[in-house]
Amino acid sequence: MSAVVEVEGLSKRFGQLTAVDDATFSIEENRIYGLLGRNGAGKTTVMQLLTGQDFLSEGSIRVFGENPVENARALSRVCFVKESQKYPDDFKPKHVLKSAPWFFPNWDAEFAERLVADFRLPVNRRIKKLSRGQLSAIGVIVGLASRAPLTFFDEPYLGLDAVARQTFYDRLLDDYAEHPRTVVLSTHLIDEVSNLLEHVIVIDEGKIIMDDSADALRGSATTVVGSTAAVEQFTAGREILHADRLGGLSSVTVGRLSPAERQAAAAAGLELAPVSLQQLVVRVTTSDTDWSQES
Amino acid sequence: MDESRPIFVQIAEGIENDILAGTLAEETQVPSTNEFAAFYRINPATAGKGVNLLVESGILYKKRGIGMFVAEGARDRLMAGRRETFQSEYVRPLVAEAAKLGITSAQLTDMITREGAE
């Protein structure tokens, strides 16, 4: 596997604000990545830097081995679907679809047409008149039909209904299987996409706090529920990611448990509940725990 | 899908169950990695890992250019393996729960006999 993106010691400051803080990571070819984090964590800034839309303050970025800033060769292989893409005032969706091949050499017009039907996008209506969901559909269609070797989806589905989101996931998986490429999905709907992801990067306050395969993260935390005394005895000496208490009951989230530890917990009358990727991200981005030291 | 265990392990178990149930007969082709991915809505690489797990253990084998097939004798081997873990995975928790509820071993035996007769 070769890396299509290599980032080292990347920082981006806007005046006093450090939006990206000494980030180092790489993105391997032909995988689906999740770039997750809270609002204002720095996800969009990272993607803007990777796609050459902003200048970095420190560090280095290599996209297909090159600096992406004003680099047509590297950027012709990149598609960045933004949360709030602006279009010229009089544009209709059909104009967007018609001009897309100028920017994306792999553009598949036939696929785009099928997607237009799937998402019921009115191609002849002025973009100003479209609903929020229809506007998002344009971005999703461009992102999929461009078949760029490196595609970023930044929160692509504001306003898309559940049916349209499922359509997006299904078409993405189908097309990815036939035309493998690198996809970076940035989203808050973690539960919906967690099974699609092969690798997960979590960013919080500009720092990369998690960078691991989705398989490794699955089961990397467990919630232990039971009487407070029993839970405290079991979790003593462990790193605690989160704790809740209700009367004499406690619910404590800890790291990975071995099969022997799980049996010991069961023998002590404790319930073990899995922690979903979404819950895990919520836990690590609300606590002060430095999760990166763990894995 | 069970959140606590890797998806690829669950994919492999699903295929094993189909072989044990006879849905996937020996020497028949199993769905492709991409078909599994689309059906379960998971990453194709994850589905591939599950299939590879079974290739490594000799349950599936690859016919070059065609796809994956169920190996001869796969069902018997899976049965033997599952029988070995039956005691620890099913009987032990059953007995533990029975003890918690004050069910004697005679009562438990009786229940099992009755369940089997139905």
Tell me the series of helices and strands of chain A, N- to C-terminal. EEEHEHEHHHEHEHEEHEHEEHEH
- Looking at CATH, the homologous superfamily of the largest domain in chain B is Winged helix-like DNA-binding domain superfamily/Winged helix DNA-binding domain
How do the strands of the widest beta sheet of chain A line up side by side? 5-6-7-3-8-9
The CATH topology assignment of the largest domain in chain A is Rossmann fold
Uncertain residue ranges of chain B: none
Overall pLDDT metric of chain B? 91
Q: Please identify the structural class of chain A as seen in this structure.
A: alpha/beta
**Portion in strands of chain B:** 5-15%
**Class by SSE composition of chain B:** mainly alpha
Which sheet architecture does the biggest sheet of chain B show? Answer: 2 strands, antiparallel
What are the segments of chain A in which pLDDT stays under 50 over at least 5 consecutive residues? 289-295
Strand order of the largest sheet of chain B: 1-2
Name the quaternary structure: heterodimer
End-to-end span of chain A in angstroms?
Answer: 22 Å
Radius of gyration of chain B: 18 Å
Q: How many alpha or pi helices of chain B?
A: 5
Question: What's the level 1 CATH class of the largest domain in chain B?
Answer: Mainly Alpha
Number of strands of chain B: 2
**How many independent structural domains of chain B?**
2
| Global Rg of chain A | 22 Å
